[in-house]
Specification:
This protein is mostly helical. A 3-stranded antiparallel beta sheet has the order 4-3-14, covered by helices on one side. Strands 6-7-8 form a 3-stranded antiparallel beta sheet, with no helix packed on it. Strands 11-12-13 form a 3-stranded antiparallel beta sheet, sandwiched between helices. Strand 3 and strand 4 form a beta hairpin. The longest helix is centred in the C-terminal third of the chain and has 146 residues. The N and C termini lie far apart (149 Å).
Length: 997
């Protein structure tokens, strides 16, 4: 049983010390290198070398060799274990009734924070649009594709190489942002949800309370959530405040995240998603592609490793991403486009860059038989390497960052937070195995990283995020041209033939479809019930320290300081969003690029304009009133008498406005409070058209208190030449541009008031404020009756009555108030309500109102200080406990080390003796080896001499044979002559009588 997720990753990173690994092997980069080109063929060897070496672009440094790894796919697992596809149906996510209509409502009328701000960039408008379509695929083709999935490498294994669904694919096909703030699912504590602290959006608490009300058994079904927020009220959708509207959008985003983006844990709204949804409703951009891809990889791991069969879990998973990838990379697997019932036209200012899944949705899949599906993947031309161009990525910061992050090898973290459990799922991401998908050259990849599923070390996700989203290095900033096509190195082709051999051997057995396994389904179920084990959580081991590493003990304080500094910088930027959101009349702000969300106003209806005028959108360039305010260099701040500045009532932009040249800040008859949380008014960012002086601050926003004291340039008015006035003109109560003839434009006096810092608060200071309130009023209450009787028609009697009432109200508010009760938010709210109700036109009341405002400010600072003190105390106690535990661990380590030293010493003596013995044996063997070499040389000389002698004998034999042939020929001639003479002699002897003498 894990703990509920109540701490952010930032807080966990201060307790569980991990950091990104900076070793070269953990961060391979793209670099030019000489490669020998190779190619796969159908020869018995399976590959060949082609052409000369070439200057390629591949991952560097090279992976260590030799390699003995082999492919292990789902298909191999099925053949080896005798599994089949029994009872298989494509497990689509069950979208609730009304989801599409709700999404259309959001896209049409509430898209002010869904579109991108940077040129040719989008936030989540396109991703939400993709979720409204229907996706289907041929079951046989999908099964054949899943059988090629390697859960160890998270890649598809095809005969022509590996492919995978990359981060860049999720961005191009589904529109999910790759860069942004860390995505994490957790539920903050109730104290942190206090709106006055400006830590989270104020409607987040209402969302969490709604979840609690709808929960049945700690689960809220998709249908229940959709019915509550949309189906029951869809005919009466109206909002009286911006808060209600943002909550409506945040509720939809929470449903969208759970059923389309980061799918897991069933058809339920995960409670930890609500924090992310609330921030996204205000335009904060999160990195959604990594957790989405992690959830997909994790689902494929569950399917690939189940001991009963890949279809047994019957668990909804993000199969729509796989179908979208099939439509992008596989050729001719979908038919014509069907009717998109009730879907709106894709209306985005950059419609040319819309996600590719908008072309895959509602398409009819082509039919495939099991044999045809397997043959399809066996043909190389059916699979594309790079189906989209990269030229449109260049020149756009967001898109360039997307490409750079997508080619990084690392871990994809997903902190999945529910109502009871807190866990971290981290899946390996290996772009080095699919380099050709990025138009790079393929070299031998590194060994795969291990996956992680843990409840004990959730804080490691912070280090995984840091490693993945680290700043870009110059050497890895390489976006290839569209004309480039990656090639294989000859070393990779030789390795690949060996790597894929086990999978190739089972390919014929899978071709028939494998509908039923070799082992019966019932037998497998019975066996699994006895050995109930599949995927379970584990603790971090040494093998996990590849992309990240542990922080040395002596560096823990430095690590905490770094994490704290990063969190503080992000917190300050987010507080600016919240302040403007809470105060719709405040000037619009522009956030720094590091935290700037993709925001864009919508003008499709009057409702959009109304919402835009009071939203937290940083810069409404398309808002006419905002343009007019910027052009006229006006500080447009409303100061309604007696009204809270936190009001978020939606106002219309169609109301009549005072001409720009006559606008004033009407603050002469009232005191504007300087509440740090909601009422501090910053300078505005004005243009130079029509006015001679502009604010020196280029970023309009709510500065920190430190900035108020240190950055004088952000609080003064400069002339056109950039110089500042000799003294800050804070004495003027209003700004009148039309009637002001001096060299500088004065600001309201309340902007220059200094606010005490939290560190400067103490009990004496607070007591002095309370004692000031207990002083008698300017007009004693005992004289009230006399004054009324003496001046029944004069204003003095009315003033006296008011003063008596004020005196009684103040006395009632101060009952029991001390430095401890002043820290109570309820008492603070009581004082603030009293201050807002006090009139400012009565002499003597103004001072009381000012002191109440100061007391409220002190109360809020005391609350902040108390909260900070409690946090620090808790942190110190935790640190002390950790140190004591560490001391105990160190003592145990020392004892173990002493024992190990003794054992090692004994082993060292044994090894020394063995080394001495081996040295003697080595010397003896060396002598024997030298003797054998000499004998080998002697025998070699003998063989050489024998060969020479043999050659001479062969020559003599040839000569003798020749002479013998000549002698035989002469002898034959002589024999022939003798034979002839003998024949003649015989004839003569026979006829000797007849021959005359």
């Amino acid at each position: 049983m894990g703990r509920p997720p109540s701490s952010s990753l930032t807080e966990l990173a201060k307790q569980q010390f991990y950091e990104p690994n900076t070793d070269r092997s953990a961060n391979p980069i793209i670099r030019e290198q000489w490669l020998a080109a190779g190619e796969l063929d159908r020869s018995p060897r399976g590959w060949k070398s082609v052409g000369p070496s070439f200057m390629g672009l591949g991952y560097h440094p090279s992976a260590p060799l030799p390699r003995v790894d082999r492919a292990t796919t789902l298909g191999m697992h099925m053949v080896d274990k005798g599994l089949g596809w029994e009872h298989h149906n494509i497990e689509y996510v069950p979208f609730p009734r009304g989801y599409k209509d709700w999404g259309i409502e959001v896209l049409k009328h509430h898209n002010f924070h869904l579109m991108g701000q940077e040129d040719r960039a989008d936030f989540i408008y396109g991703a939400i649009y993709c979720s409204l379509g229907d996706y289907s695929a041929s079951p046989a083709l999908l099964r054949a594709l899943l059988e090629t999935w390697n859960s160890h490498t998270n890649t598809f294994v095809f005969p022509c190489g590996e492919r995978t669904i990359t981060l860049l694919d999720l961005h191009k096909m589904a529109g999910l942002p790759v860069d942004g703030d860390f995505y994490e699912e957790y539920v903050p504590s109730r104290r942190e949800l206090e709106p006055s602290l400006l830590i989270y959006p104020n409607f987040l608490l209402d969302l969490l309370n709604t979840w609690d009300e709808l929960a049945v058994g700690d689960e809220v079904k998709f249908s229940t959530w959709c019915d509550h927020f949309y189906n029951k009220e869809k005919s009466l959708i109206s909002f009286s405040t911006v808060c209600e509207e943002r909550m409506f959008v945040a509720a939809f985003i929470a449903l969208w995240l759970c059923c389309f983006v980061v799918v897991g844990s069933g058809p339920h709204i995960r409670r930890g998603v609500l924090v992310m949804a609330a921030w996204m409703a205000l335009g904060r951009q999160f990195s959604l592609a990594p957790p989405a891809l992690c959830s997909l990889y994790y689902s494929l791991r569950l399917i690939s490793m189940h001991p009963i069969g890949p279809a047994y879990t019957n668990r909804a998973w993000p199969v729509h991403f796989v179908i979208g990838w099939m439509g992008l990379y596989l050729r001719k697997v979908f038919g014509n486009m069907g009717k998109r019932a009730h879907l709106p036209v894709y209306k985005h200012k950059y419609s040319a860059e819309r996600p590719s899944m908008t072309n895959t949705m509602c398409r009819t899949p082509d039919h495939f038989s099991p044999e045809g599906a397997h043959d399809f993947f066996h043909k190389r031309t059916n699979i594309a390497w790079h189906p989209y161009e990269f030229t449109n990525l260049k020149g756009i910061r967001q898109l360039e960052r997307t490409f750079i992050i997508s080619i990084r090898r690392g871990m994809l973290p997903w902190r999945r937070g529910g109502s009871k459990h807190d866990l971290c799922i981290a899946e390996p991401y290996h772009p080095d195995r699919v380099a050709q998908q990025f138009r790079f050259d393929q070299v031998i990849p590194f060994l795969p990283l291990p996956s992680l599923y843990t409840m004990d070390d959730v804080g490691i996700a912070y280090a995984y995020w840091e490693h993945l989203l680290r700043p870009a290095q110059d050497e890895e900033y390489t976006i290839p041209d569209s004309s480039r096509s990656g090639r294989f190195s000859v070393a990779w082709t030789e390795w690949w033939v060996t790597f894929i051999k086990p999978f190739a051997s089972v390919w014929p057995a899978l071709r028939s479809g494998n509908a039923s396994g070799r082992v019966s389904y019932a037998e497998r179920k019975e066996k699994y019930a006895q050995h109930n084990s599949h995927l379970s959580t584990r603790k971090i081991c040494q093998g996990d320290f590849l992309a990240v590493r542990e922080v040395a003990v002596e560096c823990h304080e430095q690590r905490i300081a770094y994490v704290t500094a990063v969190a503080e910088k992000r917190k300050n930027a987010l507080m600016r969003i919240l302040r403007v959101y809470l105060d719709p009349k405040a000037p619009q702000i522009q956030m720094p690029p590091s935290v700037q969300p993709a925001l864009q106003p919508s003008h499709s209806s009057q409702r959009d304009q109304a919402a835009g005028s009071s939203s937290s959108c940083p810069l409404l360039i398309d808002n006419p009133s905002a343009q007019e305010r910027m052009a006229d260099n006006q500080v447009n701040i409303g100061c309604d008498s007696g009204a809270k500045r936190r009001s978020s009532q939606v106002t219309s932009t169609q109301e009549d406005e005072t001409p720009a040249a006559k606008r004033k800040l009407q603050c002469a008859d009232e005191v504007v409070t300087t509440d740090f949380a909601t009422d501090f008014v910053p300078p505005v960012n004005a243009t130079t058209s029509g006015v001679g002086h502009v604010a020196t601050s280029s970023v309009v926003g709510y500065p920190d208190l430190d900035d108020f004291e240190d950055d004088a340039a952000a609080y003064c008015i400069a002339a056109r030449d950039g110089t500042c006035p000799p003294s800050l003109p804070f004495a003027q109560p209003f700004v009148d541009i039309a009637g002001f003839d001096g060299g500088y434009v004065p600001f309201p006096s309340h902007i220059g008031q200094a606010i005490p810092s939290v560190d400067g608060l103490n009990d004496d200071l607070v007591t002095s404020f309370i004692n000031d309130f207990e002083q008698p009023s300017a007009v004693p209450s005992s004289n009230a009756g006399t004054l009324v009787a003496a001046a029944t028609t004069g204003m003095e009697a009315i003033d006296a009555i008011f003063l008596d009432a004020v005196d009684k109200a103040v006395e009632e508010a101060l009952k029991g108030l001390d430095t401890m009760s002043l820290r109570d938010p309820a008492r603070c709210q009581q004082l603030e309500d009293l201050s807002n109700k006090l009139p400012v036109s009565i002499s003597g009341v103004l001072r009381v109102k000012e002191m109440l405002v100061q007391l409220v400010t002190l109360s809020r600072h005391l609350q902040l200080a108390q909260g900070e003190f409690e946090r620090n105390t808790k942190q110190k106690e935790l640190e002390v406990s950790q140190i004591m535990q560490e001391q105990e661990n160190q003592a145990a380590i020392c004892m173990n080390a002493a024992q190990e030293i003794k054992t090692i010493k004994e082993r060292r003596l044994e090894k020394e003796q063995l080394v001495t013995s081996l040295a003697a044996q080595l010397e003896e063997a060396t002598c024997a080896l030298n003797g054998l070499k000499q004998e080998e040389e002697r025998l070699g000389n003998i063989c050489t001499n024998q060969a020479d002698e043999e050659k001479k004998l062969n020559d003599a034999l040839s000569t003798a044979k020749k002479n013998l042939d000549e002698a035989a020929s002469a002898l034959q001639d002589k024999l022939k002559n003798l034979t002839h003479d003998a024949e003649e002699l015989l004839i003569s002897l026979k006829n000797w009588r007849s021959v005359p003498n």
